[in-house]
Amino acid sequence: MDTNQLLGYIGALIVGLVLGLIGGGGSILTVPLLVYLLGYNPVVATAYSLFVVGTSSMVGTYQKHKKGLVDFKTGLAFSFPSFVAVYLSRRYLVPGIPETLFSVGNYSLTKGMGIMIFFAIIMLLASISMIRKGKEKEVASKPQPYYKTFIQGLIIGTITGIIGAGGGFLYVPALVLWANIPMKKAVGTSLIIVTINSLIGFMGDVQTLDIEWGFLLLFTLISIIGIILGVFLSKFISGPKLKKSFGYFVLLMAVYIIYKELN
């Protein structure tokens, strides 16, 4: 095992810790880790991220369910259109993106660069939501019509399919603002959506990519260990402060990715 692989597995543990402590942000660390440290192609990295985040979220779903913080009915209502969009994105949209998006003079924007820049933009939006101190909103008593949930699921599913993210940072506010469920239950409910979407999205990649199962399973196992440790440590660490600090870290990483891809 070389130094980069060792650092990669240490990174996997950190990914799990972050998921266990703040309930999201796993893909924000996983994709750059796989691309810049371990040298994986962005398409492969986003595929591996789906498996890691999906499997890890499954563990998180079980833990939240034991506390009664998972609304399965609402979660499944979002999951159906979302996993359809994620699967189609990974199976057809991502493989169908041309290797060179456009060229200006001697400069060419490649498919890998485009995916990473789009990923960085989503990271910027995520960092703002983590840094900004939001006000508690009163939850409405009447849920929205299902056709709106269906359209929202399609949009979020397509985005998460392209960037290989679990999308928890998108689903939590969607569940609070659109599905009108309490914040704590929204966090738990988002995990079941992330689990289903990520693993079904990964199934689309299995048909188009050669998967290094030995590495991926070990990386995922280490992440799960990190989650278990993170859930334990979350009892002793202030969640809001940690989330805000992580938001600034994500902001810096997003800027770094954009700088690295455009230079």
Automatic annotation (TrEMBL):
Transmembrane regions listed in the UniProt entry: 7-37, 43-62, 74-93, 113-131, 151-174, 213-233, 245-262
Compartment annotation: Cell membrane; Membrane
Highest taxon above the source species: Bacteria
Keywords from the named record: Cell membrane, Membrane, Transmembrane, Transmembrane helix
Bilayer topology term: Multi-pass membrane protein
Signal peptide bounds: none
Major localization class: membrane
UniProt record similarity statement: Belongs to the 4-toluene sulfonate uptake permease (TSUP) (TC 2.A.102) family.
Protein name per Swiss-Prot or TrEMBL: Probable membrane transporter protein
Gene source species: Algibacter aquimarinus
